[in-house]
Amino acid sequence: MSTEDMNDTFDYIVIGGGSAGCVIASRLSEDPAISVCLIEAGGSDKSVLIQAPVGMVAMLPTRINNWAFETEPQPGLNGRRGYQPRGKTLGGSSSINAMLYVRGHRQDYDQWAALGNQGWSYDEVLPYFIKSERNQRLNDAYHGQHGPLSVAEVSCPSALNAAFIQAAGINGIQRSADYNGARQEGAFMYQVTQHNGERCSAAKAFLTPNLQRPNLKVLTSATVERVVLNAARATGVQLRQGGKRIVLKVRHEVVLSAGSFGSPQLLMLSGIGPREELDKHGIAINHELPGVGENLQDHIDYVYTYLSPDKANTFGCSPTFSWKMLKAMAQWKRERKGLVTSPFAESGAFFKSHPDLEVPDLQLIFVPAIVDNHARNLRLGHGFSCHLTLLRPKSRGNVRLASADPTAAPLIDPRFFSAPEDLEVLMRGADIQRAILDAAPLAPYRGKPLYALAQHDRKAVEQDIRNRADTQYHPVGTCKMGHDPLAVVDDQLRVHGIAGLRVADASIMPTLIGGNTNAPSIMIGEKAADMLLRSRREG
What we know:
By secondary structure, the protein is α/β, with parallel strands linked by helices. Helix content is 26%, strand content 22%. The chain has 13 helices and 25 strands. The chain starts with 8 loop residues before the first strand and ends with a helix. This is GMC family oxidoreductase N-terminal domain-containing protein. It holds the Pfam family GMC_oxred_C. Keywords: FAD, Flavoprotein, Oxidoreductase.
């Protein structure tokens, strides 16, 4: 949408049309008396690659609807630069991800509350998860069936998933009836954010059905340059769209929902952040806040893959499968059913690296396809893969500015394995991962490993992890919530020291949750909208 003939003043301006931003803009604009402007750097979400679930394989490894960031060289990864795909479109990363609906563990949120963040315990955030959710199967104290976000079963699962779950059971990981319910631990089929065979992103669920609202303006392909401040208060937003610089004014509040990389970057570009960093780039300091960009946490992930002789139940690069996929595309176009509905990641498990632990610290994601370097290394043939994800890393990194240019990618440094215990836990998990993949139920499907590795050679396993492990796409924490010296927002998500400015996205997480971060980001959007509306009512 263009800014021509548009009022330049709004009650609320939301920066970032991702998983949280779409929710906030939608919920606020439910009241026709409230004017809302949502600003997104990417384009619309109309692409068939977004709507067709299998289209993620074209977006994740490329720049299609994707910022496709890289990290700084990582000493813990033998000097490699990690890859950081993030959604650049309405819906944000919920428009390019694998659609897995995962909330994390009860203890994750109770820990946030224990850190002094009132209102963020599990029992207090659960109603917001339920409010969003329209679960197609589960209907109990943990789930909702009346929200905008459709949560469904994998509609066309591969036969390999049953073998994987059986193999997990042989290795002591029993089946979980609901990993988002009373007990996270166990093996299971993932539930996915889909509706009638299409992706149900945050945009599809919350935003695009409501674009006709006269009090909701959505600007796409618009780059926010800074938040405009006056006497320690946010008064508007400066952006560039179509070669024009525009300043929009705000009556009440600006909400940053630009993600764990974009939100700290915009705060620093606005003169809010560590003094040394702002001085380095010649940015005038409006408010010194040393925690901006600090506390970066991310799930490090290690994939093990086997080639497979089975072409009937796996995805792959072969003439047989190409013909099969052409027919599947026609079926999806007619019926919204079949292989095109696959999220690739179909089954998985949460488990403990040691039996004495209170909660699972590792996650498995099973894929009936070859996964090599985020699907950037295409391989001929068929296979199956298993992601092993470290859920609660001790390593901490940061996000910094490359320059004062708002179009420049930020400097992203997760510092993977800077805490040695992270590697130790992942290596223990790798033993279990291999035992599951080597178990009898998967034998009919198992060929040679993609990367041959002696299972009991600890140095070889360590080097393979350092050579190939990378993100599971869950960066959080760079505008952490709290009251300590490195906290950026309080438990109402208000930026410390600046009135009329909040942050609401995964960057506010003080600690990384034990699971995928899309559903929690949507929850954060729901809770933030509730806070904004309550603040408005209270004057």
